[in-house]
TrEMBL record:
It catalyses: 2 nitric oxide + NADPH + 2 O2 = 2 nitrate + NADP(+) + H(+); 2 nitric oxide + NADH + 2 O2 = 2 nitrate + NAD(+) + H(+). Residues 1-133 form the Globin domain. This is nitric oxide dioxygenase. The lineage of its organism: Bacteria, Bacillati, Actinomycetota, Actinomycetes, Micromonosporales. Pfam families: FAD_binding_6, Globin, NAD_binding_1. It is an enzyme of class 1 (oxidoreductase). It comes from Spirilliplanes yamanashiensis. Its EC number is 1.14.12.17. Keywords: 2Fe-2S, Heme, Iron, Iron-sulfur, Metal-binding, NAD, NADP, Oxygen transport, Transport. Residues 138-238 form the FAD-binding FR-type domain. It comes from the Bacteria. Belongs to the globin family. In the C-terminal section; belongs to the flavoprotein pyridine nucleotide cytochrome reductase family.
Length: 369
């Protein structure tokens, strides 16, 4: 597998600085081959093009990690059921992808590279198709919005109830589509553990250029209908672990941590939990009162807040990753990290410097793109 990985990375280097051209060529070829496929995609294609490239890079980077890649691809196959994808579609995507890679690489492309991408794509498609075939639930769930609250200028917390039971674990996320931006799916974590009444809570921050996040914050109303795809993600509690826990969150990355706290509140008696929350300014800490009430109710919970751009506050100052490093020691803790991609990457780098084993770190990076 190492030779395949090396070949893929070498060939990807030929097109890495031409990613926009690669994506445009891929979709042009795909829609030319089958114009009906255009109806599966959103009107605005910029984000979709970025997602294609992200999936390609992820596959190339993890091709040596068979277990991780297999689990990721099976989940991706389950998730793609929401698009009503068929095995025939995978074949069409393969032809378009190889044509795009071949064209953008130019004369440096070789038959060795062609065969490597052909082989790895066959593995990807077989695994995704198997993941989809093993799923017995619906391709997506219809859910009614029950409540919608603004918790700041750009943050909303809303609840919804799927019309059919949706099984998930605390810490997972779903792709979500609303009627205000049809065919634009974005991932959001549930902010609660499974409830008897089946309701789900979501936290959303409207970001610049975020079509879906802006609609969910500013336009969504009780009574609106959503579509939710199959739950994904592995940022869940390890049932066998007895180690203490550290949550490191930024912005609405609080949501999965809050879901895991909800689960822990139902049975935890022995594990100490530290929740580190990072925001730019002190006024950005939505849900502060509720979290403080949790800390008063459960002695095992400690909350540490940090602001990066507002030093004249009573909370700690600096990026949340640096604040985590000031505390500790963290030699025997499980870590859960969630927030923006830059915040997650900075935290992972800091935890590596602190010699926290990667096997004890779970993370999710969130972006409206």
């Amino acid at each position: 597998m190492t030779d395949l990985s090396t070949t893929l990375k070498e060939s990807w280097a030929l097109v890495e600085d031409r990613q926009d051209r690669l994506a445009r060529h891929f979709y042009a070829r795909l829609f030319l081959t089958d114009p009906q496929l255009r109806d599966l995609f959103p009107v605005q294609m910029d984000v979709q093009r970025n997602r294609l490239l992200g999936a390609i890079v992820s596959a190339v980077q993890h091709v040596d990690d068979a277990e991780t890649l297999d689990g990721y691809l099976r989940e991706l196959g389950r998730d793609h059921r929401k698009f009503h994808v068929t095995p025939q579609h995978y074949a069409q995507v393969k032809l378009a992808l190889l044509d795009a890679l071949r064209t953008c690489a130019g004369e440096d492309w070789s038959s060795v590279y062609e065969q490597a991408w052909n082989d790895v794509y066959d593995v990807i498609s077989r695994t995704m198709i198997a993941g989809a075939a093993a799923e017995t639930g619906p391709p997506y769930w219809h859910a009614e919005v029950l409540t919608h609250e603004r918790r700041g200028a750009d943050v909303a917390v809303f609840t919804c109830r799927p019309l059919q039971p949706l099984t998930f674990r605390a810490g997972q996320y779903v792709s979500l589509e609303c009627a205000y931006q049809p065919r634009l799916w974005r991932t959001y974590s549930m902010a609660n553990a499974p409830r008897a009444d089946g309701t789900l809570e979501f936290h959303v921050r409207a970001v610049g250029g975020g079509w879906v996040s802006s609609a969910l914050v500013r336009r969504l109303r009780p009574g609106d209908m959503l579509r939710l795809a199959a739950p994904m993600g592995s940022m869940t509690l390890e049932p066998q672990s007895r180690r203490d826990i550290v949550f490191v969150t930024g912005g609405t990355g609080l949501a999965p941590a809050k879901a895991l706290l909800d689960e822990l509140s139902r049975y935890n008696r022995t594990r100490w939990v530290h929740l580190f929350r990072g925001e730019r300014r002190a006024g950005d800490f939505y849900d502060k009162d509720h979290l403080d009430a949790l800390a008063e109710t459960y002695p095992w919970l400690t909350i540490v807040r940090a602001v990066s751009d507002d030093p004249d506050t009573p909370v700690e100052s600096g990026p949340v990753a640096e604040v985590v490093a000031r505390h500790g020691p963290w030699n025997h803790h499980d870590f859960y990290v969630s927030g923006s991609a830059p915040m997650v990457n900075a935290t992972l780098k800091q935890l590596s410097a602190l010699r926290v084993p990667s096997t004890r770190i779970k993370y999710d990076a969130f972006t409206d793109a």
